[in-house]
Automatic annotation (TrEMBL):
Listed GO biological process terms: protein ubiquitination
Protein name according to UniProt: RBR-type E3 ubiquitin transferase
Residue ranges crossing the lipid bilayer per the database entry: 249-278, 298-325, 337-360, 366-384
Organism whose genome encodes this protein: Blepharisma stoltei
Domain RING-type as annotated: residue spans: 45-248, 49-98
């Protein structure tokens, strides 16, 4: 990644200087990826920095995205990002630009202390991607070890302290892990919209909006519900709202199918309950009316419970007759019959459609419980299989729905 470093003293000649990356072992290192300094161009006024709106004689241009900023703003921005531990992906200062700040710019604008902190935090962030990584629990030790499902006994690479892979406490042999506090925290975190980024393991609290999440630390985009990458081909945005897999549905879907005949007259109530209780996070960014309904949900539920059967019948009748009238109007427009015959035929078609709707609902009311019972047995099978499996899943992404 190249940048152009422009400075404007009173006089000098145009000159190119190539400065290699500070870390030749960096994966992205190459001779072409270096800092290009085009310095000493004649100017008395300099250029305007879009961040501080000040004239500056030292403007840095990012050659990838072509955005330019003064050195002072870049230093302040990098200092803020690093002190907030956002080091894996430091984006361009331009709002909405997805490109990162070139590594050469980062290193050339950091003080020695910030540079040390940056390298330390970046190393830690990269390490956190490994779900089998464990820090040494010994006081004042920054060592670590990597475990596996079979490797429970870990040894610190610095102090040699022995500790447990699962509870991260001193090695206790065959005794049961004392990780009750961790379990209680995870339980509280899941109930309070706190999960971790599947890429860098940073704990993140969700404060509303859609299920698409973007980690502020590593810029990784994932689905809040299932933890899969949002842009991945194997992620089905709709299906993750229905089940854990194609054969294991969530409990609310299974019981919805089993009790479908009883719930059908109360479809309006079921609709509001699902939207508020299951997908209620979306209301945080909705308009004022939706927010008001969410706050008065118990009043809304009561009204929907009373009037839902009437609304369902009226919707079915209206839908059938609207379709019937639209079909019959086609014949009237083509001159096949008079307008009053159009109304008559529309009424007849509406009656036929309404009867057809009733038979379809009866068929679905019979089929849905059978399908629900089938998926209920499958759900029990998958749960039993997980409970009896010898595999121990470590830090599995906590699903919002089960």
């Amino acid at each position: 990644m190249n940048i152009s470093h422009l400075s404007f003293p009173l006089e000098s000649s145009l000159k190119d200087t190539r400065i290699p990356l500070l870390d030749p072992n960096d994966q992205g290192y190459s001779d072409s990826q270096s800092l290009s300094i085009i310095s000493r161009e004649f100017s008395k006024e300099g250029q305007i920095c879009p961040v501080c709106n000040d004239y500056s004689s030292e403007i840095i241009i990012f050659n990838i995205c072509k955005h330019s900023f003064c050195s002072r703003c870049i230093k302040l921005y990098l200092s803020t990002q690093i002190t907030q531990s956002s080091v894996l992906w430091i984006k361009c200062l331009q709002y909405g630009c997805p490109e990162p700040v070139p590594i050469e710019v980062i290193y050339s604008h950091l003080t020695p202390n910030l540079k040390t902190l940056y390298e330390k935090l970046k190393t830690r962030s990269e390490i956190y991607k490994n779900e089998h990584f464990r820090w040494c629990p010994a006081p004042n030790c920054e060592g670590y070890d990597n475990g596996t499902i079979k490797k429970h006994k870990l040894t610190c690479n610095q102090c040699g302290f022995l500790f447990c892979y699962y509870c991260n406490q001193a090695w206790h042999g065959s005794k049961k892990c004392n990780n009750g506090n961790d379990y209680q925290f995870e339980k509280w975190a899941n109930g309070n919209k706190v999960k971790y980024c599947p890429n860098c393991r940073l704990k993140i609290e969700k404060d509303g909006g859609c299920p698409e999440m973007i980690c502020p630390n590593c810029n990784y985009a994932w689905c809040w519900i299932c933890g899969k990458e949002r842009n991945a081909n194997y992620h089905d945005e709709m299906f993750c709202l229905i089940g854990l897999s194609k054969w294991e549905f969530y409990w609310y879907v299974i019981f919805g199918m089993i009790f479908a005949p009883a719930l059908l007259p109360f479809s309006v109530l079921v609709f509001f309950v699902i939207m508020i209780e299951i997908f209620g996070e979306r209301f945080d960014d909705a308009d004022e009316m939706v927010k008001y309904l969410a706050k008065k949900k118990w009043l809304l539920y009561s009204i929907a419970f009373v009037f839902s059967p009437i609304i369902v019948v009226l919707m079915m009748v209206s839908f059938a007759f609207i379709i019937g009238l639209r079909i019959s109007k086609l014949g009237h427009r083509n001159g096949y019959y008079a307008w009053w015959l159009s109304v008559f035929f529309g009424f007849l078609i509406g009656v036929v459609l309404f009867i057809a709707f009733v038979f379809i609902l009866i068929a679905l009311s019979i089929a849905a419980p059978l399908c629900g019972f089938f998926f209920f047995l499958l759900k029990l099978y998958f749960i039993f299989k997980r409970l009896t499996s010898n595999e121990i899943k470590v830090e599995e992404y906590p699903r919002s729905l089960v």
